[in-house]
Amino acid sequence: MRLLLGSLFALVVAAVVGLGATYLALTRGAAFGPLTIGSWTAWPKTGTADADPYVRASIARIGRLPTALGDGVAFTASADDNGRPLDGRCDVVLAGVTPAARFWTLTLYNADGELVANSIKRSGFTSQEIVRHADGSFEIVVAPRANPSNWLPTGGVERYVLLLRLYDTAVGVSTKAGREVPMPSVNVRSCP
Amino acid sequence: MIRWLLLALGGALLGGIVHLATIIILPHTATQDAYARLARSVPVNTVAPLPEPTAESAPMPFMDPAFASAVCRYDLSQGPLKLSVPVSLAYTSVSFYTRYDVAYYAINDRAAGRRVIELDLMTVEQHNQMPEDEEITAADRLIVESPTLTGLIAIRALAPEPGLMPMAKSAIANARCVRADEPKPSR
Questions:
Q1: How does pLDDT run across B82-109, given as a tens digit for each residue?
Q2: Exposure check for chain A: N or C terminus, fewer CB within 10 A?
Q3: Domain of A112?
Q4: Quick one: A14 and A86 in the same domain?
Q5: In chain A, what residues touch B91 (CB-CB under 8 Å)?
Q6: Domain tally for chain A?
Q7: Are A84 and A109 in a shared domain?
Q8: Do residues B164 and B88 lie in contact, with contact meaning Cβ atoms separated by under 8 Å?
Q9: The CATH number of the domain where A125 resides is what?
Q10: Low-confidence winner among A23-37, A93-107, A115-129 (lowest mean pLDDT)
Q11: In a shared domain, residues A67 and A138
Q12: Are residues A4 and A37 in the same domain?
């Protein structure tokens, strides 16, 4: 009886630890080799045949096709530079420049990876649509209400993520975070 | 007391094995991965345009709305495939995914250096079986080896502005993926 109880106990511990760790790894998006610059994180190896099992599992769970490395690199931001989660009811300003790439696109998704409905049917910008300063830097206002200059509407959703995809770029597996890969800053300007 | 601690430790170790096993098995059991989603709506060995993602519906999550896209769901069990993708004005890319959505190869219009991206897709075995002299005559064609028999080819053309989306779509509409031994369909 003691043996039976003991082994049952050990098996329950195994199930809780094992499945719990799997759940946490998949929902937190754990993977090896992240490239983090400011608020932005990319996993360049996700787009290669060397993708580790954690990446493969999370790709299968989400059901997306990752950006292949020969195509480009996708940077994700889900929090601002102070680490606060991005809130669609606040005005958030992206400012700065991007690493060299032939094209880039910035897209706003909800937490499930769906586009967010809004009045002007805009879910992102491409590098050609942006109004820039004289020195090439730009400012994008991610806000629920209309703003002058580059306005990316949030539709008032509570949580969103921003994806900055660089296409045909030198940023890749061997890139180290540093001065040569500048990413725009993400700062909350005002919050109701 | 020590007995229960030891049992908990053993359980935790076993839990580590459970964790690794579930992570490795998960892609093979997923029913909502990109391949499974597309397998329901996309025919095999032909290029099918994907609808633009909107807030209401999208073929899969995290699609880039600035791109016109199409997929070719391939099955190499009957033989190699030939792929040709005309290049659009801005940026065109072709990405190859295995059955389990791992990107193993991608090429864009600049890397291809031509007005049409032309590729032969085959398995490693089919590549080894190719007669050598044929390989010389086919030297100007790029050969891509697929690690799996089935998979996805994603063909995407950028519309730098929303007004250019029809142009990107028409470029993609002329993409072809056909069995290599079939006669080329007339355009």
A1: 999 998 888 999 999 999 999 999 998 8
A2: N
A3: 33-190
A4: no
A5: 102-103, 167-168
A6: 2
A7: yes
A8: no
A9: 2.60.120.600
A10: A23-37
A11: yes
A12: no
For residues B81 and A41, give the distance between their C-alpha atoms in angstroms, rounded to a whole number.
Answer: 36
Shared-domain flag, residues A96 and A167: yes
Q: Which of B16, B56, B91 sits opposite A18 (nearest CB)?
A: B16
Within this chain, do residues A111 and A152 fall inside the same structural domain, yes or no? yes
Does A9 share its domain with A100?
A: no
Question: Residue A164: which of A82, A108, A117 has the closest Cα?
Answer: A108
| Record: contact B27-A54, CB cut-off 8 A | no
Contact: B160, A129; criterion CB under 8 Å: yes
Task: Report the Cα–Cα distance between both ends of chain B, in Å, rounded.
Answer: 79
Q: In terms of Cα–Cα distance, which of B82, B71, B59, B85 is closest to B151? A: B71
Task: Give the model confidence (pLDDT) of B31-64 as tens digits.
Answer: 888 898 888 888 999 999 999 999 888 889 999 9
Euclidean distance between CA atoms B1 and B15, whole angstroms: 21
Residues of B with Cβ-Cβ distance to A25 under 8 angstroms: 19, 23
pLDDT of amino acid B103: 92
- Report d(CA B170, CA B182) in Å as an integer: 24
Distance of CA B35 to the CA centre of its chain: 9
Residue tagged 């059991």 (tokens): B29
CB B163 within 8 A of CB A129: no
Q: How far apart are CA A189 and CA B16, in angstroms?
A: 44
Min Cα distance B113 → chain A (Å) is 13
CA distances from residue A92 to A14, A129, A133, B64, B100 in whole angstroms, order as listed: 44, 19, 18, 21, 37
For the segment B135-163, the average pLDDT, to the nearest whole number, is: 83
- Distances in Å between the Cα of B7 and the Cα atoms of A12, A32, B15, B16 are 10, 31, 12, 14
By the CB < 8 Å criterion, does A156 face chain B? no
> By the CB < 8 Å criterion, does A6 face chain B?
yes
Tokens of A71: 């195509």
Name the residue among B23, B32, B62 with its Cβ closest to that of A54: B23
Residues A104 and B59: their CA atoms lie apart, in Å, by 22
Q: What is the pTM of this model?
A: 0.88
User: Measured between CB atoms, which of B11, B36, B105 is closest to A11?
Assistant: B11
Contact criterion met (CB below 8 Å) for A100 and A73: no
**Is residue A26 located within the same domain as residue A61?**
no
